[in-house]
Amino acid sequence: MADKRIPVQRRSIERKQKILSSGFKLFCEHGYYKTNTIEIAKHAGVSTGAVYSYFKDKREIYIAAFDSYLEEISGRLFEELEQSQTLPLPDFVENWVTVYLELYAASGHALAQLRMMILEDEEINRHFSDLENEYFMKLIRLLNKNGVERSDLMERIYTCCILIDALRQEQSSFSHIGLNFFIFKEQVTSTILQLLSG
Question: What's the helix, strand, coil split of the chain in %, to 5?
Fold first, then answer.
């Protein structure tokens, strides 16, 4: 097989982006195993050969598509957090929770699809575990600038991320009857603050 093309011209970059967008949409709608490169090419309006000129296989499209999706959201999250890094820690935490909920509100289906593939595919698991570690390291650097330095900060941040994502799931996916979301949010925010300052 020929080497993959790295697009430099606008038209090629746009074609590659169409393939990624189409792949992402189809993976989210039908799942990884029920999506193939022929369908991705058709949805993107390109030939199957064009798909293979940019990507070696379906897994590579999947990884690149979800990378692109997550990088866009996390990029916006970190832009917001960079601006609030000099705030007192309670305000920083409040901003972190609020912005995360806003940015990830509509991502439940995509994240569920990704979690499933992380469990089923070792290469996808390894790739997104590495990406998540980069995410944690960015948070550590921001918190260090805020004066938070602990030997177990990675573990505490991981716990914080689990709590914030549970809050997102309650807001956008589960909505348990009898559970007051605002009280839950207050408890999560308070727990995160204790984890980071305790």
Answer: 80, 0, 20
Residue 5, classified by CB atoms within 10 Å of its CB into exposed (0-12), middle (13-18) or buried (19+), is: middle
Centre a 10 Å sphere on the Cβ of residue 55 and count the other Cβ atoms it contains.
Answer: 23
Question: What's the CA angle centered on 167, arms 166 and 168, to 5 degrees?
Answer: 90
How big is the chain by its Cα radius of gyration, in Å?
19
Structure pTM? Answer: 0.86
Query: How many angstroms separate the CA atoms of 56 and 6, rounded?
Result: 12
Give the dihedral sign, CA 79/80/83/89: negative
The pLDDT profile of the chain, 198 residues, written as one tens digit per residue, is 445 656 657 888 899 999 999 999 999 999 999 999 999 999 999 999 999 999 999 999 999 999 999 999 999 999 999 998 788 999 999 999 999 999 998 888 899 999 999 999 999 999 999 999 999 999 999 999 888 999 999 999 999 999 999 999 999 877 788 899 999 999 999 999 999 997
